[in-house]
Specification:
By secondary structure, the chain is α/β, with parallel strands linked by helices. 23% of the residues lie in helices and 26% in strands. The protein is built from 14 helices and 32 strands. Helix 1 packs parallel to helix 2 and helix 1 packs parallel to helix 8. The longest helix is centred in the C-terminal third of the chain and has 25 residues. The radius of gyration is 28 Å and the shape is globular.
Protein backbone atom coordinates (compact mmCIF):
# COMPACT_ATOMS: atom_id res chain seq x y z
CA UNK A 1 0.00 0.00 0.00
CA UNK A 2 1.35 3.45 -0.94
CA UNK A 3 2.03 6.02 1.77
CA UNK A 4 -0.82 8.35 2.62
CA UNK A 5 -0.41 11.90 1.38
CA UNK A 6 -0.84 14.83 3.74
CA UNK A 7 -3.48 17.32 2.64
CA UNK A 8 -3.05 20.87 3.89
CA UNK A 9 -5.65 23.63 4.08
CA UNK A 10 -3.73 26.91 4.01
CA UNK A 11 -5.54 30.06 5.17
CA UNK A 12 -4.54 33.74 5.05
CA UNK A 13 -3.88 35.91 8.09
CA UNK A 14 -3.73 39.68 7.98
CA UNK A 15 -2.89 39.65 11.70
CA UNK A 16 -1.83 37.09 14.30
CA UNK A 17 -5.32 37.18 15.82
CA UNK A 18 -6.89 36.39 12.45
CA UNK A 19 -4.34 33.61 12.06
CA UNK A 20 -5.45 32.12 15.37
CA UNK A 21 -9.06 32.22 14.20
CA UNK A 22 -8.03 30.50 10.98
CA UNK A 23 -6.47 27.68 13.01
CA UNK A 24 -9.58 27.39 15.17
CA UNK A 25 -11.77 27.25 12.06
CA UNK A 26 -9.85 24.44 10.42
CA UNK A 27 -6.60 25.61 8.83
CA UNK A 28 -3.68 23.19 8.81
CA UNK A 29 -1.40 26.14 8.08
CA UNK A 30 -1.60 29.90 7.82
CA UNK A 31 0.44 32.39 5.83
CA UNK A 32 1.12 35.84 7.23
CA UNK A 33 3.24 38.87 6.45
CA UNK A 34 6.21 39.80 8.62
CA UNK A 35 7.49 43.31 9.40
CA UNK A 36 8.42 43.82 5.76
CA UNK A 37 9.20 42.35 2.33
CA UNK A 38 5.81 40.67 1.83
CA UNK A 39 3.70 40.98 -1.32
CA UNK A 40 0.95 42.72 0.68
CA UNK A 41 2.70 45.73 2.15
CA UNK A 42 -0.45 46.69 4.09
CA UNK A 43 -0.48 43.37 5.98
CA UNK A 44 2.67 43.38 8.09
CA UNK A 45 3.15 41.95 11.58
CA UNK A 46 5.83 42.09 14.25
CA UNK A 47 8.05 39.10 14.97
CA UNK A 48 6.55 38.94 18.47
CA UNK A 49 3.06 38.59 17.03
CA UNK A 50 4.26 35.87 14.67
CA UNK A 51 5.89 34.08 17.62
CA UNK A 52 2.55 34.18 19.43
CA UNK A 53 0.81 32.72 16.38
CA UNK A 54 3.41 29.95 16.09
CA UNK A 55 2.96 29.08 19.77
CA UNK A 56 -0.77 28.64 19.21
CA UNK A 57 -0.55 26.83 15.86
CA UNK A 58 2.16 24.34 16.82
CA UNK A 59 0.01 22.90 19.59
CA UNK A 60 -2.19 21.45 16.83
CA UNK A 61 0.80 20.57 14.62
CA UNK A 62 -0.32 23.39 12.32
CA UNK A 63 2.26 25.43 10.46
CA UNK A 64 2.98 29.13 10.03
CA UNK A 65 4.43 30.41 6.76
CA UNK A 66 5.71 33.96 6.47
CA UNK A 67 5.50 35.78 3.15
CA UNK A 68 8.85 37.22 2.17
CA UNK A 69 7.97 37.32 -1.50
CA UNK A 70 8.91 40.76 -2.76
CA UNK A 71 11.88 41.42 -4.97
CA UNK A 72 14.73 42.90 -2.96
CA UNK A 73 17.11 45.78 -3.49
CA UNK A 74 20.80 45.65 -2.58
CA UNK A 75 20.50 47.85 0.50
CA UNK A 76 17.73 45.60 1.91
CA UNK A 77 19.70 42.35 1.92
CA UNK A 78 21.25 42.74 5.42
CA UNK A 79 17.84 43.51 6.96
CA UNK A 80 16.30 40.50 5.23
CA UNK A 81 19.05 38.19 6.47
CA UNK A 82 18.55 39.41 10.03
CA UNK A 83 14.77 39.10 9.77
CA UNK A 84 14.94 35.51 8.55
CA UNK A 85 17.00 34.54 11.59
CA UNK A 86 14.47 36.19 13.89
CA UNK A 87 11.58 34.42 12.18
CA UNK A 88 13.29 31.04 12.40
CA UNK A 89 13.94 31.57 16.12
CA UNK A 90 10.27 32.57 16.54
CA UNK A 91 9.23 29.13 15.25
CA UNK A 92 8.20 29.96 11.66
CA UNK A 93 7.88 26.80 9.58
CA UNK A 94 8.72 28.18 6.13
CA UNK A 95 9.18 31.33 4.10
CA UNK A 96 7.21 31.98 0.91
CA UNK A 97 9.80 33.69 -1.29
CA UNK A 98 10.38 35.14 -4.75
CA UNK A 99 13.87 36.63 -4.79
CA UNK A 100 16.78 34.36 -5.78
CA UNK A 101 19.03 36.26 -3.37
CA UNK A 102 17.70 34.15 -0.52
CA UNK A 103 19.36 31.13 -2.12
CA UNK A 104 22.71 32.88 -1.82
CA UNK A 105 22.42 34.03 1.80
CA UNK A 106 23.80 32.24 4.86
CA UNK A 107 20.43 31.49 6.45
CA UNK A 108 19.26 29.12 9.17
CA UNK A 109 17.85 25.85 7.78
CA UNK A 110 14.36 27.26 7.30
CA UNK A 111 12.27 25.76 4.50
CA UNK A 112 11.73 27.93 1.41
CA UNK A 113 8.52 27.81 -0.62
CA UNK A 114 8.55 29.11 -4.19
CA UNK A 115 5.92 31.86 -4.36
CA UNK A 116 3.43 32.01 -7.20
CA UNK A 117 5.21 35.32 -7.94
CA UNK A 118 7.97 33.12 -9.45
CA UNK A 119 5.67 32.18 -12.37
CA UNK A 120 5.55 28.46 -11.65
CA UNK A 121 3.78 27.16 -14.75
CA UNK A 122 5.73 24.25 -16.23
CA UNK A 123 7.33 20.90 -15.33
CA UNK A 124 10.70 22.35 -16.30
CA UNK A 125 10.25 25.18 -13.81
CA UNK A 126 9.26 22.70 -11.08
CA UNK A 127 12.37 20.61 -11.68
CA UNK A 128 14.53 23.74 -11.49
CA UNK A 129 12.94 24.84 -8.21
CA UNK A 130 13.44 21.40 -6.67
CA UNK A 131 17.09 21.43 -7.73
CA UNK A 132 17.47 24.91 -6.20
CA UNK A 133 16.44 23.62 -2.77
CA UNK A 134 12.83 24.78 -2.42
CA UNK A 135 10.52 22.63 -0.26
CA UNK A 136 7.11 23.49 -1.76
CA UNK A 137 5.90 25.06 -5.01
CA UNK A 138 3.02 27.54 -5.17
CA UNK A 139 1.56 26.97 -8.62
CA UNK A 140 0.37 29.67 -10.99
CA UNK A 141 -3.40 30.16 -10.75
CA UNK A 142 -3.84 29.76 -14.51
CA UNK A 143 -3.06 26.02 -14.67
CA UNK A 144 -5.57 23.36 -15.66
CA UNK A 145 -5.93 20.01 -13.93
CA UNK A 146 -3.99 18.39 -16.75
CA UNK A 147 -1.14 20.88 -16.42
CA UNK A 148 -1.03 20.41 -12.64
CA UNK A 149 -0.83 16.64 -13.10
CA UNK A 150 2.06 17.11 -15.55
CA UNK A 151 3.98 19.18 -13.02
CA UNK A 152 3.22 16.64 -10.29
CA UNK A 153 4.91 13.89 -12.29
CA UNK A 154 7.98 16.09 -12.78
CA UNK A 155 8.79 16.78 -9.13
CA UNK A 156 8.73 15.18 -5.72
CA UNK A 157 7.91 18.49 -4.03
CA UNK A 158 4.46 19.18 -2.55
CA UNK A 159 2.36 21.36 -4.84
CA UNK A 160 0.35 24.25 -3.43
CA UNK A 161 -2.54 25.67 -5.43
CA UNK A 162 -4.99 28.49 -4.89
CA UNK A 163 -8.52 27.27 -4.35
CA UNK A 164 -10.49 30.38 -3.41
CA UNK A 165 -10.42 34.17 -3.48
CA UNK A 166 -9.52 37.17 -5.61
CA UNK A 167 -7.77 36.62 -8.94
CA UNK A 168 -4.97 38.57 -10.57
CA UNK A 169 -5.75 38.90 -14.27
CA UNK A 170 -2.04 38.81 -15.13
CA UNK A 171 0.26 35.95 -14.27
CA UNK A 172 1.55 36.74 -10.78
CA UNK A 173 5.04 38.18 -10.85
CA UNK A 174 4.57 39.30 -14.46
CA UNK A 175 2.37 42.32 -13.84
CA UNK A 176 4.07 45.71 -14.12
CA UNK A 177 1.03 47.89 -14.75
CA UNK A 178 0.87 49.28 -11.23
CA UNK A 179 4.57 50.17 -11.31
CA UNK A 180 4.28 51.73 -14.76
CA UNK A 181 1.17 53.79 -14.07
CA UNK A 182 1.47 54.63 -10.39
CA UNK A 183 5.09 53.86 -9.38
CA UNK A 184 3.70 51.19 -7.06
CA UNK A 185 5.29 47.83 -7.80
CA UNK A 186 3.20 44.69 -7.37
CA UNK A 187 6.48 42.82 -6.99
CA UNK A 188 7.23 45.08 -4.04
CA UNK A 189 3.88 44.52 -2.32
CA UNK A 190 2.24 47.78 -3.37
CA UNK A 191 -0.19 46.80 -6.16
CA UNK A 192 -2.61 49.63 -7.01
CA UNK A 193 -5.06 47.23 -8.74
CA UNK A 194 -4.84 48.62 -12.25
CA UNK A 195 -6.89 45.59 -13.35
CA UNK A 196 -9.96 46.75 -11.38
CA UNK A 197 -10.18 50.10 -13.18
CA UNK A 198 -12.78 51.02 -15.80
CA UNK A 199 -11.68 51.02 -19.45
CA UNK A 200 -13.01 51.51 -22.92
CA UNK A 201 -12.04 48.90 -25.49
CA UNK A 202 -11.13 50.86 -28.61
CA UNK A 203 -10.20 49.72 -32.11
CA UNK A 204 -7.46 50.96 -34.42
CA UNK A 205 -9.61 53.95 -35.34
CA UNK A 206 -10.15 54.98 -31.73
CA UNK A 207 -13.80 53.91 -31.68
CA UNK A 208 -15.30 52.12 -28.69
CA UNK A 209 -15.96 48.55 -29.75
CA UNK A 210 -19.50 47.25 -29.57
CA UNK A 211 -19.52 43.48 -29.92
CA UNK A 212 -21.65 40.58 -28.86
CA UNK A 213 -20.57 38.44 -25.93
CA UNK A 214 -21.20 34.72 -25.53
CA UNK A 215 -24.89 34.04 -25.11
CA UNK A 216 -24.41 32.61 -21.57
CA UNK A 217 -22.14 35.38 -20.25
CA UNK A 218 -22.81 38.72 -18.55
CA UNK A 219 -24.43 41.65 -20.39
CA UNK A 220 -22.49 43.29 -23.20
CA UNK A 221 -19.69 45.57 -21.96
CA UNK A 222 -20.34 49.22 -22.72
CA UNK A 223 -18.21 52.31 -22.27
CA UNK A 224 -16.24 52.54 -19.06
CA UNK A 225 -16.50 48.89 -18.02
CA UNK A 226 -14.14 46.86 -15.87
CA UNK A 227 -12.75 44.82 -18.73
CA UNK A 228 -9.82 43.30 -16.83
CA UNK A 229 -11.72 42.54 -13.62
CA UNK A 230 -12.13 38.83 -13.01
CA UNK A 231 -14.61 37.06 -10.82
CA UNK A 232 -13.28 35.41 -7.68
CA UNK A 233 -11.97 31.85 -7.65
CA UNK A 234 -14.10 29.09 -6.15
CA UNK A 235 -12.84 25.55 -6.70
CA UNK A 236 -14.76 23.90 -3.90
CA UNK A 237 -16.44 21.53 -6.36
CA UNK A 238 -13.07 20.26 -7.64
CA UNK A 239 -11.06 19.51 -4.50
CA UNK A 240 -10.85 15.77 -4.99
CA UNK A 241 -9.85 16.13 -8.64
CA UNK A 242 -7.13 18.57 -7.57
CA UNK A 243 -5.86 16.10 -4.97
CA UNK A 244 -5.71 13.36 -7.56
CA UNK A 245 -3.85 15.71 -9.92
CA UNK A 246 -1.19 16.20 -7.25
CA UNK A 247 -2.20 19.23 -5.18
CA UNK A 248 -1.23 18.79 -1.53
CA UNK A 249 -1.83 22.30 -0.17
CA UNK A 250 -5.11 24.15 -0.84
CA UNK A 251 -4.58 27.89 -0.51
CA UNK A 252 -7.22 30.48 0.28
CA UNK A 253 -6.37 33.97 -0.99
CA UNK A 254 -6.99 36.93 1.32
CA UNK A 255 -4.21 38.42 3.44
CA UNK A 256 -6.10 41.72 3.34
CA UNK A 257 -9.47 40.17 4.19
CA UNK A 258 -11.24 40.60 7.53
CA UNK A 259 -11.73 37.96 10.20
CA UNK A 260 -15.31 37.09 9.16
CA UNK A 261 -14.13 36.18 5.66
CA UNK A 262 -11.33 34.00 7.01
CA UNK A 263 -13.59 32.24 9.50
CA UNK A 264 -16.30 31.46 6.97
CA UNK A 265 -14.18 30.41 4.01
CA UNK A 266 -11.76 28.35 6.10
CA UNK A 267 -14.61 26.52 7.84
CA UNK A 268 -16.30 25.78 4.51
CA UNK A 269 -13.19 24.24 2.98
CA UNK A 270 -12.39 22.37 6.20
CA UNK A 271 -15.71 20.55 5.97
CA UNK A 272 -15.36 19.92 2.24
CA UNK A 273 -11.84 18.51 2.55
CA UNK A 274 -12.72 16.39 5.58
CA UNK A 275 -15.54 14.74 3.67
CA UNK A 276 -13.05 13.68 0.99
CA UNK A 277 -10.46 12.53 3.54
CA UNK A 278 -13.05 10.35 5.23
CA UNK A 279 -13.92 8.63 1.93
CA UNK A 280 -10.32 8.43 0.72
CA UNK A 281 -8.65 7.52 4.01
CA UNK A 282 -6.37 4.99 2.29
CA UNK A 283 -4.92 7.70 0.07
CA UNK A 284 -5.01 10.98 1.99
CA UNK A 285 -4.83 12.27 5.54
CA UNK A 286 -5.09 15.61 7.26
CA UNK A 287 -1.88 17.55 7.81
CA UNK A 288 -2.64 18.69 11.38
CA UNK A 289 -4.56 17.59 14.47
CA UNK A 290 -7.93 18.33 16.03
CA UNK A 291 -11.65 18.20 15.41
CA UNK A 292 -13.85 21.25 14.90
CA UNK A 293 -17.25 22.49 15.92
CA UNK A 294 -18.74 25.61 14.34
CA UNK A 295 -21.40 27.95 15.72
CA UNK A 296 -22.58 28.78 12.19
CA UNK A 297 -23.19 27.14 8.83
CA UNK A 298 -20.36 28.12 6.46
CA UNK A 299 -21.54 29.59 3.15
CA UNK A 300 -19.06 30.91 0.58
CA UNK A 301 -21.50 33.27 -1.14
CA UNK A 302 -21.94 35.27 2.07
CA UNK A 303 -18.31 36.40 2.08
CA UNK A 304 -16.75 38.98 -0.25
CA UNK A 305 -16.97 37.83 -3.85
CA UNK A 306 -17.36 39.27 -7.33
CA UNK A 307 -19.18 36.17 -8.53
CA UNK A 308 -17.38 32.84 -8.84
CA UNK A 309 -15.33 30.94 -11.39
CA UNK A 310 -13.17 27.82 -11.23
CA UNK A 311 -10.74 29.80 -13.42
CA UNK A 312 -9.34 27.64 -16.21
CA UNK A 313 -9.13 24.51 -14.07
CA UNK A 314 -11.12 22.62 -16.68
CA UNK A 315 -10.25 24.84 -19.62
CA UNK A 316 -11.45 28.23 -20.80
CA UNK A 317 -15.08 29.04 -19.98
CA UNK A 318 -17.16 32.23 -20.40
CA UNK A 319 -17.55 32.83 -16.65
CA UNK A 320 -14.12 34.30 -15.88
CA UNK A 321 -14.94 37.98 -15.81
CA UNK A 322 -17.25 40.48 -14.14
CA UNK A 323 -17.25 43.60 -16.28
CA UNK A 324 -20.00 45.24 -14.21
CA UNK A 325 -18.18 45.95 -10.95
CA UNK A 326 -14.89 45.21 -9.20
CA UNK A 327 -16.70 45.28 -5.85
CA UNK A 328 -18.33 42.45 -3.94
CA UNK A 329 -21.76 41.39 -5.15
CA UNK A 330 -22.27 38.71 -2.49
CA UNK A 331 -25.05 36.12 -2.64
CA UNK A 332 -28.08 36.05 -4.92
CA UNK A 333 -31.12 36.64 -2.68
CA UNK A 334 -33.91 36.98 -5.23
CA UNK A 335 -35.49 38.79 -8.14
CA UNK A 336 -37.38 42.08 -8.14
CA UNK A 337 -41.06 41.44 -8.87
CA UNK A 338 -42.58 44.90 -8.20
CA UNK A 339 -41.31 48.46 -7.85
CA UNK A 340 -43.23 51.34 -6.24
CA UNK A 341 -42.33 54.87 -5.20
CA UNK A 342 -40.96 54.02 -1.74
CA UNK A 343 -40.38 50.29 -1.79
CA UNK A 344 -39.99 47.22 -3.96
CA UNK A 345 -40.81 43.53 -3.62
CA UNK A 346 -38.36 40.67 -4.04
CA UNK A 347 -39.25 37.08 -4.83
CA UNK A 348 -36.75 35.43 -2.51
CA UNK A 349 -34.21 32.74 -3.21
CA UNK A 350 -34.96 30.34 -0.34
CA UNK A 351 -31.37 29.04 -0.20
CA UNK A 352 -30.07 32.50 0.77
CA UNK A 353 -32.42 32.82 3.72
CA UNK A 354 -34.42 35.91 4.71
CA UNK A 355 -33.40 39.52 4.23
CA UNK A 356 -32.81 41.51 7.42
CA UNK A 357 -33.15 45.14 8.36
CA UNK A 358 -29.89 46.88 7.52
CA UNK A 359 -28.61 44.39 4.94
CA UNK A 360 -26.51 45.82 2.13
CA UNK A 361 -27.67 44.89 -1.37
CA UNK A 362 -26.92 45.50 -5.03
CA UNK A 363 -28.95 45.08 -8.21
CA UNK A 364 -28.01 45.43 -11.86
CA UNK A 365 -29.71 47.44 -14.58
CA UNK A 366 -28.29 46.97 -18.07
CA UNK A 367 -25.21 45.48 -16.49
CA UNK A 368 -24.56 48.46 -14.20
CA UNK A 369 -24.65 48.08 -10.41
CA UNK A 370 -26.99 49.96 -8.10
CA UNK A 371 -26.29 49.61 -4.39
CA UNK A 372 -28.67 50.25 -1.51
CA UNK A 373 -29.29 49.37 2.12
CA UNK A 374 -32.48 47.59 3.14
CA UNK A 375 -33.52 49.98 5.90
CA UNK A 376 -36.71 48.02 6.67
CA UNK A 377 -37.79 44.59 5.47
CA UNK A 378 -41.27 43.13 5.72
CA UNK A 379 -41.34 39.42 4.82
CA UNK A 380 -44.42 37.44 3.83
CA UNK A 381 -45.66 34.76 6.22
CA UNK A 382 -44.56 31.96 3.88
CA UNK A 383 -41.08 33.47 3.43
CA UNK A 384 -41.45 33.68 -0.35
CA UNK A 385 -41.46 37.46 -0.66
CA UNK A 386 -39.96 40.49 1.02
CA UNK A 387 -40.96 44.13 0.68
CA UNK A 388 -37.91 46.33 1.06
CA UNK A 389 -37.95 49.98 2.13
CA UNK A 390 -34.53 51.58 1.40
CA UNK A 391 -33.46 54.81 3.07
CA UNK A 392 -33.28 56.31 -0.42
CA UNK A 393 -35.19 54.60 -3.18
CA UNK A 394 -32.82 53.61 -6.02
CA UNK A 395 -33.73 53.19 -9.66
CA UNK A 396 -34.69 49.53 -10.06
CA UNK A 397 -36.40 47.33 -12.61
CA UNK A 398 -38.74 44.34 -12.26
CA UNK A 399 -36.99 41.13 -13.25
CA UNK A 400 -33.57 42.34 -12.13
CA UNK A 401 -31.56 40.10 -9.76
CA UNK A 402 -30.76 41.27 -6.22
CA UNK A 403 -27.59 40.30 -4.39
CA UNK A 404 -26.77 40.76 -0.71
CA UNK A 405 -23.19 41.84 -0.10
CA UNK A 406 -23.61 42.54 3.62
CA UNK A 407 -25.66 40.24 5.85
CA UNK A 408 -25.95 42.05 9.18
CA UNK A 409 -27.03 39.03 11.24
CA UNK A 410 -24.33 36.87 9.69
CA UNK A 411 -21.68 39.45 10.53
CA UNK A 412 -22.91 39.59 14.12
CA UNK A 413 -22.55 35.81 14.48
CA UNK A 414 -19.02 35.87 13.10
CA UNK A 415 -18.03 38.81 15.30
CA UNK A 416 -18.32 36.48 18.30
CA UNK A 417 -16.41 33.27 19.11
CA UNK A 418 -17.64 30.90 16.41
CA UNK A 419 -15.50 27.75 16.48
CA UNK A 420 -13.68 25.33 18.76
CA UNK A 421 -10.81 23.03 17.89
CA UNK A 422 -10.10 20.18 20.26
CA UNK A 423 -7.83 17.14 20.39
CA UNK A 424 -8.95 13.94 22.09
CA UNK A 425 -7.28 13.24 25.43
CA UNK A 426 -7.01 10.03 27.40
CA UNK A 427 -6.30 9.94 31.14
CA UNK A 428 -5.09 6.94 33.12
CA UNK A 429 -5.07 7.21 36.93
CA UNK A 430 -2.96 4.53 38.65
CA UNK A 431 -2.43 3.87 42.30
CA UNK A 432 1.20 3.88 43.47
CA UNK A 433 2.87 3.13 46.76
CA UNK A 434 3.16 6.81 47.75
CA UNK A 435 0.08 8.16 45.97
CA UNK A 436 -1.12 8.14 42.38
CA UNK A 437 0.17 8.60 38.86
CA UNK A 438 -1.87 10.52 36.28
CA UNK A 439 -0.91 9.71 32.70
CA UNK A 440 -2.20 11.91 29.87
CA UNK A 441 -2.03 10.96 26.17
CA UNK A 442 -3.03 12.82 23.02
CA UNK A 443 -1.91 12.66 19.39
CA UNK A 444 0.76 10.09 20.22
CA UNK A 445 2.39 12.15 22.99
CA UNK A 446 2.30 11.03 26.62
CA UNK A 447 3.15 12.76 29.92
CA UNK A 448 2.91 11.72 33.57
CA UNK A 449 2.18 13.65 36.76
CA UNK A 450 2.53 12.24 40.27
CA UNK A 451 -0.06 12.94 42.95
CA UNK A 452 1.26 12.74 46.50
CA UNK A 453 -1.66 11.54 48.62
CA UNK A 454 -2.55 8.90 51.16
CA UNK A 455 -4.75 6.01 50.04
CA UNK A 456 -8.15 6.76 51.49
CA UNK A 457 -10.83 4.11 51.00
CA UNK A 458 -14.15 5.29 49.55
CA UNK A 459 -17.56 3.90 50.34
CA UNK A 460 -18.97 4.53 46.84
CA UNK A 461 -17.60 3.95 43.30
CA UNK A 462 -15.31 6.81 42.36
CA UNK A 463 -14.71 6.50 38.61
CA UNK A 464 -17.46 8.98 37.65
CA UNK A 465 -16.41 11.35 40.43
CA UNK A 466 -12.86 11.26 39.09
CA UNK A 467 -14.13 11.71 35.52
CA UNK A 468 -16.06 14.85 36.47
CA UNK A 469 -12.88 16.43 37.80
CA UNK A 470 -10.61 15.39 34.98
CA UNK A 471 -12.97 16.36 32.16
CA UNK A 472 -13.08 19.99 33.32
CA UNK A 473 -10.80 21.01 30.47
CA UNK A 474 -12.41 24.43 29.95
CA UNK A 475 -10.90 26.44 27.10
CA UNK A 476 -7.88 24.18 26.66
CA UNK A 477 -7.18 22.45 23.35
CA UNK A 478 -8.38 19.09 24.68
CA UNK A 479 -11.55 17.14 25.28
CA UNK A 480 -11.63 13.96 27.37
CA UNK A 481 -12.29 10.79 25.41
CA UNK A 482 -11.11 7.91 27.64
CA UNK A 483 -10.53 7.46 31.36
CA UNK A 484 -9.00 4.36 32.93
CA UNK A 485 -8.68 4.03 36.73
CA UNK A 486 -6.45 1.39 38.30
CA UNK A 487 -6.78 1.29 42.12
CA UNK A 488 -6.85 -1.39 44.82
CA UNK A 489 -10.51 -1.02 45.56
CA UNK A 490 -12.39 2.27 45.59
CA UNK A 491 -10.21 5.22 46.58
CA UNK A 492 -11.10 8.76 47.53
CA UNK A 493 -8.80 11.28 45.81
CA UNK A 494 -9.39 14.91 46.83
CA UNK A 495 -10.83 17.04 44.05
CA UNK A 496 -8.20 19.73 44.59
CA UNK A 497 -5.41 17.23 43.95
CA UNK A 498 -7.08 15.90 40.83
CA UNK A 499 -7.63 19.41 39.47
CA UNK A 500 -4.02 20.41 40.09
CA UNK A 501 -2.75 17.23 38.44
CA UNK A 502 -5.06 17.77 35.47
CA UNK A 503 -3.72 21.30 34.95
CA UNK A 504 -0.11 20.12 35.20
CA UNK A 505 -0.73 17.26 32.78
CA UNK A 506 -2.44 19.46 30.21
CA UNK A 507 0.34 22.04 30.37
CA UNK A 508 3.05 19.39 30.07
CA UNK A 509 1.24 17.68 27.21
CA UNK A 510 0.81 20.99 25.37
CA UNK A 511 4.52 21.69 25.74
CA UNK A 512 5.40 18.21 24.50
CA UNK A 513 3.24 18.62 21.39
CA UNK A 514 4.84 21.96 20.59
CA UNK A 515 8.34 20.58 21.07
CA UNK A 516 7.54 17.61 18.85
CA UNK A 517 6.35 19.97 16.12
CA UNK A 518 9.58 21.96 16.20
CA UNK A 519 11.71 18.81 16.25
CA UNK A 520 10.02 17.67 13.04
CA UNK A 521 9.87 21.14 11.45
CA UNK A 522 10.64 21.07 7.75
CA UNK A 523 14.12 22.23 6.78
CA UNK A 524 15.58 23.76 3.66
CA UNK A 525 16.40 21.15 1.07
CA UNK A 526 19.91 20.87 -0.35
CA UNK A 527 20.82 22.43 -3.66
CA UNK A 528 21.09 19.91 -6.50
CA UNK A 529 22.97 22.05 -9.04
CA UNK A 530 20.11 23.97 -10.67
CA UNK A 531 21.03 25.26 -14.12
CA UNK A 532 19.51 27.90 -16.39
CA UNK A 533 21.24 26.16 -19.32
CA UNK A 534 22.48 29.30 -21.02
CA UNK A 535 19.17 31.17 -20.92
CA UNK A 536 18.99 34.93 -21.19
CA UNK A 537 16.90 36.12 -18.25
CA UNK A 538 14.84 39.16 -19.32
CA UNK A 539 13.35 41.83 -17.06
CA UNK A 540 10.41 39.61 -16.11
CA UNK A 541 12.79 37.28 -14.25
CA UNK A 542 12.49 40.05 -11.63
CA UNK A 543 16.15 40.17 -10.63
CA UNK A 544 16.74 43.39 -8.73
CA UNK A 545 19.91 42.93 -6.67
CA UNK A 546 23.55 41.90 -7.04
CA UNK A 547 23.27 38.62 -5.12
CA UNK A 548 20.40 37.31 -7.23
CA UNK A 549 22.17 38.37 -10.43
CA UNK A 550 25.41 36.63 -9.41
CA UNK A 551 23.54 33.50 -8.34
CA UNK A 552 21.76 33.31 -11.71
CA UNK A 553 25.02 33.74 -13.64
CA UNK A 554 26.76 31.13 -11.49
CA UNK A 555 23.94 28.72 -12.28
CA UNK A 556 24.02 28.90 -16.04
CA UNK A 557 22.30 32.14 -17.07
CA UNK A 558 24.01 33.71 -20.09
CA UNK A 559 22.70 37.23 -19.43
CA UNK A 560 20.58 38.84 -16.72
CA UNK A 561 18.52 41.94 -17.40
CA UNK A 562 17.52 44.34 -14.65
CA UNK A 563 14.03 44.08 -13.18
CA UNK A 564 11.37 46.35 -14.67
CA UNK A 565 11.41 48.44 -11.49
CA UNK A 566 15.07 49.36 -12.10
CA UNK A 567 14.82 50.21 -15.79
CA UNK A 568 14.44 53.65 -17.29
CA UNK A 569 11.33 54.17 -19.43
CA UNK A 570 12.25 53.22 -22.95
CA UNK A 571 10.95 50.91 -25.61
CA UNK A 572 7.46 49.49 -25.48
CA UNK A 573 7.11 46.73 -22.86
CA UNK A 574 4.61 44.03 -21.93
CA UNK A 575 3.17 45.06 -18.57
CA UNK A 576 0.55 42.32 -18.22
CA UNK A 577 0.32 38.77 -19.55
CA UNK A 578 -3.18 37.34 -19.17
CA UNK A 579 -5.08 34.15 -19.88
CA UNK A 580 -8.24 36.27 -19.79
CA UNK A 581 -8.77 37.33 -23.38
CA UNK A 582 -11.07 40.07 -24.64
CA UNK A 583 -11.29 38.45 -28.04
CA UNK A 584 -12.83 35.42 -26.36
CA UNK A 585 -14.99 37.54 -24.06
CA UNK A 586 -16.54 39.36 -27.02
CA UNK A 587 -17.03 36.24 -29.14
CA UNK A 588 -14.16 37.14 -31.49
CA UNK A 589 -11.73 34.28 -30.71
CA UNK A 590 -10.42 32.84 -34.02
CA UNK A 591 -10.02 29.41 -32.42
CA UNK A 592 -13.70 29.38 -31.45
CA UNK A 593 -15.25 31.11 -34.47
CA UNK A 594 -12.85 29.88 -37.14
CA UNK A 595 -12.77 33.38 -38.61
CA UNK A 596 -10.78 36.56 -38.14
CA UNK A 597 -12.15 39.09 -35.60
CA UNK A 598 -14.67 41.51 -37.12
CA UNK A 599 -13.26 44.62 -35.49
CA UNK A 600 -10.41 46.74 -36.82
CA UNK A 601 -7.31 45.73 -34.87
CA UNK A 602 -5.01 46.50 -33.13
CA UNK A 603 -7.13 47.08 -30.06
CA UNK A 604 -6.30 49.08 -26.96
CA UNK A 605 -7.64 49.65 -23.46
CA UNK A 606 -8.30 53.33 -22.77
CA UNK A 607 -8.61 54.86 -19.31
CA UNK A 608 -10.97 57.79 -18.65
CA UNK A 609 -7.91 60.08 -18.46
CA UNK A 610 -7.09 59.23 -22.08
CA UNK A 611 -4.11 56.94 -21.53
CA UNK A 612 -4.27 54.02 -23.94
CA UNK A 613 -2.66 50.58 -23.60
CA UNK A 614 -2.32 48.48 -26.77
CA UNK A 615 -3.30 44.82 -26.72
CA UNK A 616 -1.43 41.95 -28.34
CA UNK A 617 -2.92 38.48 -28.79
CA UNK A 618 -0.79 35.33 -28.74
CA UNK A 619 -3.26 32.69 -29.89
CA UNK A 620 -0.65 29.92 -29.84
CA UNK A 621 -0.50 30.32 -26.06
CA UNK A 622 -4.07 31.55 -25.57
CA UNK A 623 -2.70 34.71 -23.97
CA UNK A 624 -3.46 38.42 -24.16
CA UNK A 625 -0.74 40.96 -23.46
CA UNK A 626 -1.22 44.53 -22.28
CA UNK A 627 1.52 46.86 -23.50
CA UNK A 628 2.81 50.25 -22.47
CA UNK A 629 1.73 53.09 -24.77
CA UNK A 630 3.88 53.54 -27.85
CA UNK A 631 6.40 56.34 -27.54
Amino acid sequence: MSEKQNIELLAPAKTADIGIEAILHGADAVYIGGPGFGARAAAGNSVDDIRRLCHFAHLYDARVYVTLNTILYDDEIPAVESLVRELYDAGVDALITQDLALLALDLPPIALHASTQMDNCTPERARFLEAAGYSQIVLARELSLQQIAGIHTATSLPLEAFVHGALCVSYSGRCYASEYCFSRSANRGRCAQFCRLAFDLVDADGRVVNATEHKDSRPRPQQGRHLLSLRDMNRSAHLEAMMDAGVRSFKIEGRLKDVAYVKNVTAFYRRAIDEILERRSDDYQRASAGVHTFAFEPALAKSFNRGFTDYLLQGRTPDLWNFSTPKSIGEHVGTISRVSARSFTITLNREAGPLHNGDGCVSFINGLPTGFRANRVESSADGRYAEVFPLKMPTLQPGAPVYRNEDTQWEQILSRPSAERRMYLSFTLMEQEDGYLLRAESEGEEVEVTIAASHQPAEKPQTEVIRRQLQKLGNTAFVLRDLIVYTSGERFVPASLLSAARRQAVEALSDALRVRHLVHRDVRRPSLAPNFNGRHLPFNANISNRLAREWALQHGASQVDEAFELQQPGRQSVIMTCRHCLRFAFGQCPKVTGTRPRWHEPLALRLPDGRSFPLRFDCSRCEMQVLTPER
